[in-house]
Amino acid sequence: MNFSRTRIAPTPSGFLHLGNVFSFAVTAALAERTGAKVLLRIDDLDQQRVTPEYIRDIFDTLHFLGIPWQEGPANAEDFSQHYSQLRRMPLYENALEQLRNSGQVFACACSRSQLASAKPCNCNNIPLDEPGVSWRLRTDHSISLTVQTLSGKPIQTTLPLSMKEFVVRKKDGFPAYQLSSVTDDDHFHTDLIVRGQDLWDSTLAQLYLARLLPGSSFPKNIFFHHTLLTDDPGRKLSKSAGDTSIRYLRREGREPGDIYALIASRMGLPAAGNYRELAAPVIEHALSGM
Ligand SMILES: [Zn+2]
Questions:
Q1: pLDDT tens for residues 226-243?
Q2: What's the CA-to-centroid distance between 91 and ligand 1, angstroms?
Q3: Could you state, in order of their start, the residue ranges of all structural domains in the chain?
Q4: What are phi and psi of 212, to 5 degrees?
Q5: Which CATH class, in words, describes the domain spanning 5-287?
Q6: Which residues surround ligand 1, an ion (CB under 5 A)?
Q7: What pLDDT, on a 0 to 100 scale, did the predictor assign at position 276?
């Protein structure tokens, strides 16, 4: 199996933690196995939460842990000058225009908490150009979506109800994550996407979106959704869990090998001292199609 390009796509809204490193390790090792280049894509559209310190932490952590990337920004300055998502706003606006032309978007004035509750939205006939409205998709949950997987067996499914009428443009006029992520993957020509299982529903939302974006190659991507590193059983590591941030562990004197060993132990994987060793059993398992 051969690929051209995959990506690691952290959001600089907290310090990178053990769970991020596991995902990056699997991505980098799988890229090496399949001839793909790794693009570092830093998702900084959520300007309210992004800080320069978190952006620097991404570079510091990747260097410290020896996780390589071949494309994208070399450092924080290069990032802000050439690779910030703010510089790709015309691409996102073009995609939003395509969605508007599809006739599938509607304007919604519901608050964030109204959106979070499962109650149906009754917003009707609000002009799309009205200030302060979000744009949502009219979703059809009977349309078949195909996820191409690493094991070679495609998965056929439909858009889950968790993604009912999902937001594509936020109230501030910025594209929502699902839209910017698909647009970026098309723009950078990825053909392999590695992400945690927590993003499964997002993958389906993105495949659904890509159908409405003429010329999108997103559905051709091969996906690998890896298991998540959890703290307590069943609880996803949060960015606020300071004691799992790499920055904290470094300050405690941990070396890269200690961090890989810690992740391996938490994941129930064989002992590992670098990203390749950590990822090897995960990749074998994925390629075997189990
Ligand atoms: Zn609404």
A1: 999 876 554 555 544 567
A2: 26
A3: 5-287
A4: -95, 0
A5: alpha beta
A6: 108, 110, 121, 123
A7: 98
